[in-house]
Amino acid sequence: MNQYLLDKDAFSSGQVGSKIWLCEELEKLGWSSQLTYIYAGWYAITAFLLLSRGKFQVDKIRSLDIDPSCEAVADMINENWVWQDWKFKAFTQDCNNYEGQYGDLIINTSTEHFTSTEWFDRIPNGTRVILQGNNMPHEDHIIHTTSLEEFSKQYPLSSYAYQGEKQFSYPSWSFTRYMIVGIK
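The chain above was modelled as a monomer; its predicted structure follows.
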């Protein structure tokens, strides 16, 4: 019997495609990281892709999510790296209240799920960030963005290494994902 009840949307083409896009753009930059934090990491598919692709040099990844059911699933999916001196580890944490150590890279692919930008405001200036959002109407999406320009204004960076959008078109609906990469 399966001890985990998974939300299969975490593995949808839009979710996985967005995270692969993030990996591809990050790999082009040639960045490395001693400590990467993934905010609202859910099941840590982003971490799994970054680590399994092996093209982004990172010492440790920490995935934070407010939902306590995500921690065990994220650790299970990334178990190959959990036992390796915690190269990966998930934690239950509200990113809006996070007061721990900040990494040298913060990734948030779920900006539309936050009720405010408090999590972003707490990130120290000079920190590298990768942020994604979208224009998909959904009951769980609180912050709505309608363009890349609007998304960039909502999360202003001091410098940009990448800004782009990716269209996801399905037979009966579509949405656009926005991504900005740079230094806060």
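DSSP finds six helices and seven strands in the chain.
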